[in-house]
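Marked as duplicate of an earlier ticket. Keeping the data here for the record.
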Amino acid sequence: MTPPPSSHGGRRPGAGRKPGSGSYREPTQPLRVPHSQVPTVLAYLEHWRAGTVLPLEPGTAVAQDARPLAVTGTTGPIRFSAAVPAGFPSPADDYVQECIDLNRHLIRQGHEAATFILRVEGWSMLGAGIHDGDEIVVDRALNPSEGRIVVAVVNGQLTIKRLRFREGQPVLIAENPHFADRTFAEGEELEIWGVVTRVLHKV
């Protein structure tokens, strides 16, 4: 006599997650990823799911071609408003107060020779509003104090992170949960290249 079919185990029609019902709204598949690239892939998927165009980058590094910052050759003064409402519009002329010099606006007086602009590559500082492709203004004459965003030299490469101290030791903090903080073992050297003062973000 043949026993009745078991109601436990095996594949059941209609069971399991429906294709396209997960976070990505389409079928997925297993994929082997190098351990060092896991944060990059996770960051990419998070922003892809949110509809953000995000190139794959290994982290947030700063391009090596640092350029001195000098805003020159402008054709005329730039009109400046102290406040612009983000709600209902108002007549623009009511808000124009003065004209500004971008050199004085972006560069601290006396720090002209120590101020540079660098281009950011990567997404580890996304939480601080610094995106891949942004340009940052870096002042090498400022003191790199606790909590400041800095450009540091790590293993011969420039990187941008927030500077913190734990038990008296410097730690470079990423502003993206998919990227690890950078700690330093005994004997490792950390050089602070400069302090970030502005972010130039294209819209």
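See parent ticket for discussion. DSSP finds two helices and ten strands in the chain.
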